[in-house]
Design brief:
254 residues; mainly alpha
């Protein structure tokens, strides 16, 4: 009957709203992913360029060489990060889109098999067997778009309206955040030179590393001071190692 069809449709809509990609936890996960990417991108730029600058400075290179190396590291790293992030997200989107096309083909070619799959999904959700069978049959026969949406969420595990987000946004965000992080250890060398610039770069980078480490605790739940000190320790260790290598190489070349 018309009334029963409406009831089935409402039930399907409720189940769809409870599927992955629509619940608040998934929304929080997406925001968490953005925060993670932001913190990691800026940290990567900061640490990699700090190590580059410290290594070149340790070799005894002149001020101009340190500046050129730092700027080259900033530009090259930003472009590399942006390209890598764009290709990663775009490839993931294309993969999910292809999965969606395959599923759509299966719905059209083998509706009975898809009805059985949907029925099993709804039964596992606690829907009575008879209602699950009616719901699955109604969706596949009368509303294939909703059936495809449901199969994407329940069987394939992704939101067909999202497909992992925009590759352009991911690439642009990575480029900007890496560049901002890489700029931190370079700033003192744009203003002063010599040991003053080196010391200022180390101090400024240390503060930024601690702040980034403390900021990521929104995801990890670790105490901000502990996380900040851990981030600082790793970054400082990497910078000291490259500085020492720079000294060794500079001494060998003299």
């Amino acid at each position: 009957s018309v009334e029963r069809a409406r009831m089935i449709r409402r039930t399907a809509a409720v189940l769809e709203a409870e599927s992955p990609g629509s619940v608040p936890d998934a929304s929080r996960a997406r925001h968490g992913n953005a925060l993670r990417a932001g913190v990691l991108g800026s940290t990567d730029g900061l640490v990699s360029n700090l190590c580059l600058v410290m290594g070149v400075a340790g070799s005894g290179a002149p001020h101009q060489a340190i500046l050129v190396a730092g700027l080259a590291g900033l530009v090259a790293g930003s472009l590399s990060m942006a390209l890598g992030e764009y290709l990663s997200v775009q490839s993931a989107r294309e993969l999910l889109a292809n999965e969606l096309r395959i599923e759509a083909g299966q719905l059209a070619a083998s509706p009975d098999a898809e009805v059985a799959e949907l029925r099993g999904i709804y039964e596992r959700k606690g829907i009575p067997a008879r209602m699950a069978a009616e719901l699955a049959d109604h969706m596949v026969r009368s509303d294939p778009e909703l059936a495809l949406d449901t199969m994407a969420r329940e069987e394939l595990g992704f939101d067909p309206d999202d497909l992992g987000g925009s590759a352009w946004v991911a690439g642009g965000t990575s480029l900007v955040l890496f560049a901002l992080g890489a700029l931190v250890p370079l700033l003192p060398f744009l203003l002063v030179d010599g040991q003053v610039a080196l010391l200022a770069a180390a101090c400024l980078s240390g503060l930024a590393l601690f702040g980034l480490g403390a900021g990521i605790t929104r995801l990890t739940g670790i105490h901000p001071v502990r996380s900040g000190l851990r981030q600082l320790a790793f970054g400082a260790s990497a910078a000291l190692i490259t500085y020492g290598i720079g000294i060794a190489v500079g001494t060998a070349l003299r």
